[in-house]
Amino acid sequence: MPMIKARFIKSRDGRNHKQQVAELLSRLTAEILHKDPAVTSVLIESADPADWFVGGASTGDQQVGTFYVEVSITEHTNTKDETTEWVRRVYDGMNHLVGPAHEASYVLVHAVDGDAYGYGGLSQNLRWASRQR
């Protein structure tokens, strides 16, 4: 039941990559982190290259793409190898879609306590406990 947020600069050629980004992130989250696509949510936001700064200069002036992607998952549900692979593959996929991307493009995995995270009004730990009965 991950929540994914993706922010990236708008393409210089005017193409809208929102659907492609959502599909990429959902697919990688299912393949690598083994999360159910039926309860995976993705929020996509694009920004003007003139509004995103890296190293004090806009990415528009630098003529590079950039992005910030974060996912919230329940802690202890994935191995370090899985989250490391997810970070790498998301970076590579986003670089392909909006790049060439500045090296200072970020991918973050939030591994959240199961009592502090949930959906449908139920925490993840409560969902787990109810399946054990």
Automatic annotation (TrEMBL):
Its EC number is 5.3.2.6. InterPro entries: Tautomerase/MIF_sf. The keyword Isomerase applies. The keyword Isomerase applies. It comes from the Bacteria. One of its GO terms (molecular function) is isomerase activity. Gene3D superfamilies: Macrophage Migration Inhibitory Factor. Keywords: Isomerase. This is 4-oxalocrotonate tautomerase.
